[in-house]
Amino acid sequence: MFKLSGTLKVKNDTVQVSEKFSKREFVLTDASSMYPQDILFQLTQDKCNLLDALNVNDQIEVSFNLRGREWTSPQGEVRYFNTLDAWRLEKVGAVAQGGGIPQGGPSAMSLDPIASPASTAASDDDDLPF
User: Fold this and answer.
1) 28 CB contacts (<8 Å, ≥6 apart)?
2) Helix, strand, coil percentages for the chain (3-state, nearest 5)
3) Is 128 contained in some domain?
């Protein structure tokens, strides 16, 4: 299982591939590195509707599995393909609204070890030995 956060760039319609198989593709822009990457994911079967509640440009987190397969062409050439099979989509910040942890997670909290002037003044009056 893997997770990746980014911006929803493309949201395609559901495609009925066969009588028993449907899929829906979408593209997520991962801007966590110097060079943003547009990454194609797919949803299958009953997961296709997970994309309905999201809009292009939404910040989302995708939970997915990496799938790989081998294919042999009619000419006998063997090729390999990878698929990023998404199974959960969450809008970033939807759960944390009004909560105690900022949208950016614990790293966005102010963990500055330097005390503010107000708290320093209060500690000067404290007569505890420690």
Assistant:
1) 4, 6, 7, 8, 9, 38, 39, 41, 60, 62
2) 15, 50, 40
3) no
Tokens representing 66 are 């990496």
Nearest to 40 by CA among 2, 71, 80, 85: 85
- Classify residue 39: in a domain, yes or no: yes
pLDDT of residue 1: 87
CATH number at residue 6: 2.40.50.140
Q: Report the domain count for the chain.
A: 1
In this predicted structure, the answer to whether residue 72 has a pLDDT above a threshold of 50 is yes
- Any domain includes 69: yes
User: How far apart (Å, rounded) are the C-alpha atoms in residues 62 and 49?
Assistant: 14
Q: Is residue 115 part of a domain?
A: no
- Closest Cα to residue 6, out of 58, 54, 52, 49? 58
Each residue of 5-41: pLDDT tens digit?
999 999 999 999 999 999 999 999 999 999 999 999 9
Residue 34: which residues within 8 A CB-CB, separation 6 or more?
none
pTM exceeding the 0.85 threshold for the entire prediction: no
Query: 34: domain range?
Result: 2-95
